[in-house]
Write a structure and sequence with these properties.
2 domains, elongated, disordered N terminus, 1 helix, mainly beta
């Protein structure tokens, strides 16, 4: 068998036999095409490099102008924010070429998100609780009447919103209306808490008998006020005979209103009706402060039309005992009556959009105080802890309730009962009641016992007010066909005219009176 032919093709070779290889001139042409292709590839590579450098430079400039952002991942295409909803990332990852390290342009620190501070609450001093040191011990409860053995008084009050070492606070003491002590200094207490401020005599002797008042100011603004009385030693006395006029202590002063058919005006007089003095128009329901130096009242719409008024509208007002410096404490268009407690708190009734009237509180500077009581026609107990009010809860009548609104208890069950006046000894309530169309003054003990009718004359007898000694009552009456003011003993005896022709509007509550 013949051996294999060297020129024979083999299936495993990649090329054809030599007999079909290209000619020499064909090889030259092939290499020329290879060279041309290689040049083209080199050109494309150069263009790619140039474009890449351009893109990188642009990315670098963009990254340099972007604000630094915590949690961003920066690459050639710019920053990509992390998804929201999870914890913030604290590290930024930056890709940079190895040929030229990038020095980032310094950027301002990222803003720190903080909660906007709330407004600083205003300074506020609460009602004053007086406790006395007598016979070597401090009284357990707050009081306003102390024995003549008192050698030290503690004025205790809550405070809030104070600025230590920045605000000035001033305390002014009065005795029987005359200033006896004034101290002004920087506040050194805490921001809020309770302050126990005490006063004693320099010689260790008991306090002088009479009325003591304390005013507390912060940065020149009156914040709270309180008063107490140091009494003379009690001396046994026998009750006067029936229908015998009682001696008139002086100088008690009556604050009352007159009605001219279109507006109320506030007047004062001695308790016998003498020395009547006009104070202010468009004013009703006057009530003395504990020491009798100022009057709170309801200012009617139109009060600002008077020359003595610098501005204001209807609401709660105060003025001096001679009518000086009237000033508005609180705008309130629905008040009928108000009362001023021995602790410096002013209570007033109002209808603020609801179906029922309620009693609200402010201090002597006009700052609203917490709490409200269902009812109207408030009358404070002598210690300021309780309020007598006309209300339906749901039974109508007179109710007694703590000043914080707790422990309401019904005193009377007649729906016409109203205009209560708490006696100075804290034991009785005088009020008016309508029986078969005849309105009279009644008296009842605070425990609900001892109901007594004091007036029986035909017509209307209403709006009672106590003298400070508890021995006499003033009231308004129509028994003679016109509105007049009468005075009587606490048992109803010796009823007699003291002020004639005072008038009255349809709302008798505006005509409540006050004696100091």
């Amino acid at each position: 068998m013949a051996g294999p032919d060297k020129n024979q093709s083999h299936s495993t070779r990649p090329f054809s036999p030599t007999t079909v290889l290209p000619l020499p001139h064909q090889k030259k042409r092939t290499w020329w095409w290879f060279g041309l292709g290689g040049a083209g590839l080199l050109g494309c590579a150069a263009i790619f490099i140039i474009l890449s450098l351009s893109v990188y430079k642009r990315a670098k400039e963009t990254a340099a102008t972007l604000p630094a952002t915590a949690g961003a991942v920066i690459g050639s295409a710019g920053p990509v924010q992390q998804p929201t909803g999870g914890p913030a990332q604290q590290t930024a990852i930056v890709f940079t070429p190895t040929a030229a390290p990038v020095t980032p342009t310094p950027q301002p620190a990222a803003a720190t998100l903080t909660t906007a501070p709330t407004d600083t609450p205003p300074a506020q001093l609460g009602p004053i609780c007086f406790k006395a040191v007598a016979d070597g011990s401090l009284s357990a409860a707050c009081g306003t009447d102390f024995p003549p053995t008192v050698v030290e008084i503690h004025a205790i009050f809550d405070y809030g919103g104070m600025q230590p070492e920045r605000q000035q606070w001033t305390r002014i003491w009065y005795h029987n209306g005359s200033q006896v002590l004034k101290v002004q200094e920087k506040w050194t207490g805490d921001v809020d808490g309770q302050f126990d401020y005490n006063l004693n005599t320099t010689d260790g002797q008991p306090f002088s008998v009479g009325t003591w008042e304390l005013e507390l100011y912060v940065d020149g603004n009156l914040q709270t006020y309180g008063a107490f009385v140091v009494n003379l030693p009690a001396t046994p006395t026998s009750p006067p005979p029936e229908n015998t006029p009682l001696p008139q202590p002086q100088p008690y002063r009556l604050a009352f209103t007159k009605w001219d058919g279109s507006k109320h005006s506030v007047w004062t007089a001695k308790l016998d009706g003498s020395e009547q003095r006009f104070l202010l128009d468009f004013a009703a329901s006057p009530v003395w402060s504990a020491a009798g130096r100022r009057l709170a009242f309801y200012g009617e719409e139109g009060i600002d039309t008077q020359a003595a008024i610098a501005g204001g509208t209807n609401g709660i007002w105060v003025m001096g005992g001679e009518g000086e410096s009237p000033a508005q404490l609180l705008p309130e268009g629905s008040t009928h009556t108000l009362d001023w407690s021995s602790t410096g708190l002013i209570a007033f009734d109002g209808a603020r959009g609801g179906p029922d009237r309620r009693i609200y509180f402010i201090d002597a500077a006009g700052i609203p105080q917490p709490g409200e009581i269902l009812g109207e026609q408030p009358s404070f107990s002598p210690d300021g802890r309780q309020v007598a009010t006309k209300v339906c809860r749901p039974e109508c009548g007179l109710w007694l309730v703590n000043a914080d609104g707790s422990a309401p208890r019904q005193l009377t069950t007649e729906g016409s009962d109203g205009l209560p006046a708490w006696s100075p000894d804290g034991q009785k309530i005088a009020f008016s009641r309508n029986v078969d169309g005849n309105v009279d003054i009644y008296l009842i003990r605070v425990d609900g016992a001892g109901l007594t009718r004091l007036t029986t004359a035909p017509g209307t007898d209403s709006v009672p007010a106590w003298a400070p000694d508890g021995r006499q009552l003033v009231f308004r009456t129509t028994r003679n066909g016109i509105w007049q003011i009468f005075l009587m003993n606490h048992d109803g005896s010796n009823q007699h005219l003291i002020i004639d022709n005072v008038g009255a509007s349809d709302e008798w509550a505006f005509d409540r009176m006050s004696v100091k």
